């Protein structure tokens, strides 16, 4: 509940909450005073403010930072705001040109902060096909199922790709996003060249790995070995995207390689999400009827659900038809049954030094209705992966139910850990992920005993509950659990250029 006092020194005071600041280790009751878009005070003494948010019995933490979020429209960002996210970044797939992606987001407005890496896949497609760049944050996902961008690159083409990536970095990209797993047959020399470029620029390389040898015995190179070797050989900061979903039942081996690389002095970061099903374009290699096992599926078509209609695909013939008819259409692929799998999900979240990241995907319309991305609430015919709406609340629920992490440890995985992955390329993020005077007023206030996800595979856009206030740059985009849909205070996070 909010109380107003127009004569007080702070614009907003969050009163009496349990403040968790991952950097300092603070985990105690404090008042937090906000002035404009910054935290002005964190105090044991009672503060007065023009607006008082009663946080007694609640947790006050830094706003969550999502490194891996493909859905970048207003509606998709609203879902994430209701999941405690104050900064959502498109880093695995990226965008190109980033200048256009940033300009579009600024012109439309966003409820939470945003940013982009340079998209290797989009630039590679432009060089190989000669088609113009889309300039959209979701551009890479539109063409994952096509063959044209996955052909071998000549030396001249590779040099052009590298030059384009370098220019994107100069324009403020937050590193380089490499969808290597969607072009698994390319020459290993190409990602090596990209890694050398990223290392020279001192920016992260956010990478979707190729399949592991256990999944595809004749793969050009084992995905986990390749990424860790790139980090060791080039010195690049290699970010291994959603290591749990690409490694599936072989996660222990992939994590062992990561830890060995770290022990050798390499910089390898990872991320995880707590779901048993992935989602990507149905035309990609992962949905080839003979390759479903790559993501841990049993190899039978019923492991696949076509998101546009919610159809469970019953035959290989139907799967082949949809792959041809709608190659960019999104579909679920089940790696394991989540029912009764809380221990497995908990162990994923407990992976050492891993950030929590959603891999949120764009909203999908059923093909019959039209949809305005700014429409709220979202209509029932719009679908997505439940991780797009519930990753962070689900994380908090799982650690509450299993005890695999303390609340402070879980908060750090959602805030400080992702921030530190970006600190060199984006120094401005040092003002985020902290509840300290002088830092950005990006904060979440939540009920640790009740916060939970509600999105399911059938009802995938149901928002999380338990986040009482979500504050972005000093403005409460969620107030008393209700989205304030007219507010669009999100700002860009850019690379140093």
UniProtKB/TrEMBL annotation:
Task: List each coiled-coil range.
Answer: none
Give every Amidohydrolase-related domain span. 59-477
Q: Which GO terms describe its molecular function?
A: hydrolase activity, acting on carbon-nitrogen (but not peptide) bonds, in linear amides
**Pfam families for the chain:** Amidohydro_1 (PF01979)
This protein's cofactor list reads: Zn(2+)
Q: What is this protein called?
A: Amidohydrolase family protein
